[in-house]
Amino acid sequence: MNVKRDILWRVYVAFFAVALFGVMVVVYAVRIQFVEGEHWRKMAEELTTDYQTIEAVRGNIYAADGSLLATSVPIYELRMDFKAGGLSDEVFNVEVDSLAYHFAQMFKDKSQADYLREFKEARKKGSRYHLLKRKLSFSQVKEMRTWPILRRGQHKGGLIILEKDRRQKPFQLLAFRTIGYSQEGVAPVGLEGAYNTELAGVSGKRLMQKVAGGVWIPVNADNEIEPENGKDVYTTIDVNLQDVAENALYETLVKHDALNGCAILMEVETGHIKAIANLARKSEGVYGEEYNFAVGESEEPGSTIKLASLIALLEEGISLEDSVDVELGQTKFFDRTMKDSEPGHYQMLSLQQAFEKSSNVGISKLVYKQFKEQPQKFIDYFSQMGLDKPLNLQITGEGKPRIKNPKDNDWYGTTLPWMSIGYETQFTPLKILTLYNAIANQGRMVKPILVTEVRQTGKLVHKYETEDIAKSVCSKETLKKVRQALEGVVQNGTARNLKNDNYRIAGKTGTTQMARGGKYTKSFYKSSFAGYFPADNPKYACIVSINGASKGIYYGSAVAGPVFLEIANKVYASSLHMHKDISETAHTPEIATPRNFSGKLKDIRDVMNRLNIAHKVGEANEEIEWTTTARMERNMRLEQRKIIQNLVPNVSGMSLQDALFLLENRGLKVVVSGKGNVYRQSMNPGTAVYKGATIVIELR
Amino acid sequence: MYNWLLSKVKGDTVIWTIVVLLSVGGLLAVYSSTGSLAFKQQGGNTEFYLLKQLVFILLGFGFMWLCHLLDYRYYSRLSQLFLYLSYPLLLYTLLFGVEINDARRWIAIPGTGLTFQTSDLAKLALIMYVARFLSKRQENIKDFKGAFLPILISVSVICVLIAPANLSTALVIFSTCLLLMFIGRIPIKYILAVVAAGVVTFALAASLVFNMPDEKLENIARLRTWKARIENFMADNPETGGGNFQNVQAKIAIAGGGLTGKGPGNSTQRNFLPSPYADFIFAIILEEYGLMGGVALIFLYLLLLFRSIRIVIKSPKAFGALLAVGLSFSLVIQAFINMGVAVNIFPVTGLALPLVSMGGTSTIFTSLAFGIILSVSRTIEQEGGEVNESEVAHA
Fold this sequence. Notes:
The complex is a heterodimer. By secondary structure, chain A is an alpha+beta fold. Chain A folds into three domains: 52-172 and 203-232, Penicillin-binding protein 2a (Domain 2); 242-576, DD-peptidase/beta-lactamase superfamily (Beta-lactamase, 3-Layer(aba) Sandwich); 591-699, Trypsin Inhibitor V, Chain A (2-Layer Sandwich). The model of chain A is unreliable at 583-589 (pLDDT under 50). Chain B has one domain. Helix content of chain B is 70%, strand content 4%. Chain B contains 16 helices and three strands. Chain B has helices at 2-8, 13-33, 35-41, 47-69, 74-96, 118-136, 144-162, 167-183, 188-210, 214-217, 223-234, 245-257, 281-314, 318-342, 360-383, 389-394, and strands spanning 98-100, 103-109, 114-117. Chain B has a three-stranded antiparallel sheet. In chain B, helix 2 (13-33) runs antiparallel to helix 13, helix 5 runs antiparallel to helix 6 (118-136) and helix 7 runs antiparallel to helix 8. At the A-B interface, helix 1, helix 2 and strand 1 of A face helix 3, helix 8, helix 12, helix 13 and helix 14 of B.
């Protein structure tokens, strides 16, 4: 037999042996699939896992002073796996009585015997996902984890803790609509909606397993991917001013049984919106935040827009003293009659007077005379003032401005005069306020800001600076005259009811007949007031706009003016920098500190300086790091608190933050109880530190 | 493009096609089955392991291409070199290797942070060496002392060095070498004697191990693991319906696949099966591509064997024939044993499915083996057709 043939038959034998084995693999596979298939597939149904999403904790929304406007509070649900692998009959039977006792004691909703029955039954049934309690707070869960059986954890005690988040607005109604909300399937509203991406964070994943009865339980104790918590949004809202604005608006709406209204307060220099209130009638005498009128509703502004007309006229070289024949408050443009709100008083008025008294005839006649040949020029002035473009705010749903153009089909001969007094154009209240703010801000028009910062666990992620819309809305000369005219409105004009002794307000009233169902009616008015204060050195601009006042009073000065005044008074009262210097009659107050306290020298000095408490450092030693205060007759003495490495420090009188820093740095485990400053500590100061030892500190 | 590729690669295009199909199939299966691993170790970056495996496959193709360009006759000398290199490396691995999953099979390559499994190198070297030895001794192949004993010693030393850390690999290599000896015309009676001796030794050892309490097994290599695996395999656990956890999960996967499978990426069992991307990848393939996918895979491996038989027919020299056939059989046997584990014919072994399972060393050395097979095929094609018998005899 030759070699090659000898090799070949052997290769064939080997090939068939291997091929046979391949067939065997197939046969086994077929057997598993088709003979035993039913059995395995049934088992598969019982054993299914899935990566389930764990929502990240949503970020907070803060007010300007750091108080919480919206936050997520974790609530917990406790369940129990009564068939947990490590939970023996022995342990269960011994401890279940005591567990039932704890439940009865804490919740007081069922007796111990009832709870005992519930647990025993669940154990007997082998319930793997038995609901113990819902809507538990963190502290409740913390306590429950120390209870019998439950303290053994997931595997040995069957404890399953599920965390959920509930969104809470600590100030409830305050700026409700501006804070907004974000819900699946609903268009985002307010800041919650606009900053949803930042606030939401990145969700994590957890491998969950389906166990008998179709319930899902986590496979591992830890999450497979930890969620990344949402970022915090810091707003410009001032909680106190918001509260004043909302209350003042609320009372006025109730008083005049108005349909709805809004009030916005803005910081002149920065464009920060300090307060933004929107209220609408829900039922007789009850109002709530339902829609962001201030930002979303673009409507005919009425007389407040006469500011823009005045600027246009002044820029054209017309003087405040130029007079106009107001024809006793009634004139005709083509076939349409233009009327003043209170006709019959005046014949000849200067431009300033026409503005102060809000004469429709006066203003419209001057505008018509000046611009009828070239109406585009009038429109261009509006554009120059930035009125034609939306504000591109940080929240969505902004109402778009609408200014007619001479080329438009609906531009009539009457459009120009009516436009000059606030009809046939549409702006949101915030847009109008931005113009008034620009006048207060030396002509510089800034974009309103609601959000100043976005932070991730305290670290700055994004900062929003003040942006200019227009460097200057008019010339310097015009600005001076306009401010004079706006002050005149309060001093001599329609808003004399806002005059007060402490500071001066400048602004313009607006009383607008509103179109309802396509027709202007006598019974439905928008009453508004826009302005700024103090007039000589403006700090804040504000607009109040109320629709549908229905008790016979509807003038802007009478309805919106008082709300404006109340907000302005509150701002004035709480802004010391606005006050004129009062003579130095007030003497420094007696030193009064509630008690002695301790901490870092630098911090304590800062506090004392800020509160004007006279103090001096004990040994005049600048090297002191930690200090404790001592009350003396005339001042506070700051004495050195000696902190020595490796010895237990004296932390009494310190804040929790300082105490934790010192104690934990020395390797001590700290158990804290109570609230306030450290009152007592369990280890004597000056004794040697044992790393890992536990020290108890009591706060009071 | 296709023509350009064809001009660059030489040798059996069918084998090239098999290699490409296996690699692509493997990538798909690896991508699908590494989901839970990616979640655990890469923060949910599920592409990580796909890309890693792709890099190894591409690297493997590079080596394969280089290997197939080299005249296969050089491998005769190289096999000797590699074999001598294997002894110290295996010894080093056994004593100082990196421990992964309680087994010391890996050594770290200095400066790279990579680890590699020395038994893969030893296995390739040994198969090549056996082919060399058998072809050199064809004239006195029936001689016990001159042919059988020396080769048996070489094979045994390698297997003994591998066995403590990786008994199953040692057994598979040993069996493959016996098969190769059979093909290389070593008398059947000698081979049967070795098999008989092996079975008796194994039975004795097993009875010893199984009668010893676990505590005493503690320090002796991996005896406990082996015992546990075999016990698991034998066990008839009534609660799980037979077999241990892995096997039950594998069976659920296979049963779920049915005839046509759940479709690529739709495996659910990958979350339960331990290392679904390696030992049990065949179960995932059966789950996603069904019985048809499994049969196709088996067909591909058999086709590889069949094409290497063609090389035997065409090869003018015994070395080339034995080299090609030896490497092919070793790959296919390993593949079928891996599949056998998945369908529960064998206990769990830890053998990879060549080119399909995820794994760097395994992919690279499998590629080298394919490269050498293709080198033989290329040389034969270029030197032309049938050669008369006498040349074979004298080779």
